[in-house]
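Quick one - inputs below.
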Amino acid sequence: MSQLGKRYRCQVCGTEILCTKAGEGNPVCCDKEMEVQEPRPLPSSD
Amino acid sequence: MRVMPTGIFFHYQQGERLKDFPQALDQVLDKDDVFLYDAFYPSKPRSCFDLEPIPIETLHKIHSSEMVDRVKATGNYEGALYSVSGSLAAAVKIWLGKIINAFVFTGYGDHHVGSNFFGGGCYFNGAAIAIHELQEKFGAKRFAIIDTDAHHGDGTWELFENNPTVLYICFCSGSSQEKNQNVNIHIPSKVRDSDYLALAKDAFHKWVKPFQPEIIFWNWGYDGTIGEYGDIGLSPDFHIQMTEEIKGLAQGICEGRLIIILCGGSRRDLAVYLIPRIIKILVD
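Output:
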């Protein structure tokens, strides 16, 4: 299932996309599933 | 007619308060007129995404180098830097006409940070830095900062108490006073939504409208909500009403240019209830 707000990257052509509506499937580019880009959370005050 | 977009400035955070984001934005992120500017992806070059950390030289225009060093020593520098970066990026994009208004997710707030001091979970003053940059680089002239966090914004007050180009209106428990364009509006320790809103409307009419700011910054805290650490008796829906009021104010005097900067408040459930609704008001 795709993740809202996450970025995905095609390992073949380098295309990057932002998921703005999550769905059951995973995004595909160049016949391959795109790889989710993992953000690093930063500290906050709470 | 083309609708000007709303910008959401977001960086992933470790704390409890925003754990449900960005997923909780599912009703707004898929709209055509909403842009998400996000960070932080350590595997990517900084230029890949719009929310870049601001250079240290920009911090030094508002805060002393000694203070910046002290912030670095806390271990929270990077989170503070991205909080400020969101405010600055939002301000520039609004000024350039890329977006009309913005909501900035911060990990650390603004208003307890002055030129050489910080505290209360605040490390850099994002609104002050954004205003300085717009004035210096783009020739912008007048700004208003509306502060509805429950506590007094001692840092913002100090930074602008001798600056006639910035109107700072702070709603808090301190006594009512005014100095140049700095105004403190006393809010009782327990207040009804309707009474607070009446005070706000009066202040907007008396101060903000005649001042004619080019952009309104809103330091929005929900710490005054019932059950929060700064509880002054406000209901959650007070913040929705205030958003409608301030959006209307911005539309009336500066073509809708408004930046909401997330400040105080700690409850995760309130964040999930309030933030998507507030952003939706910005978008609609």
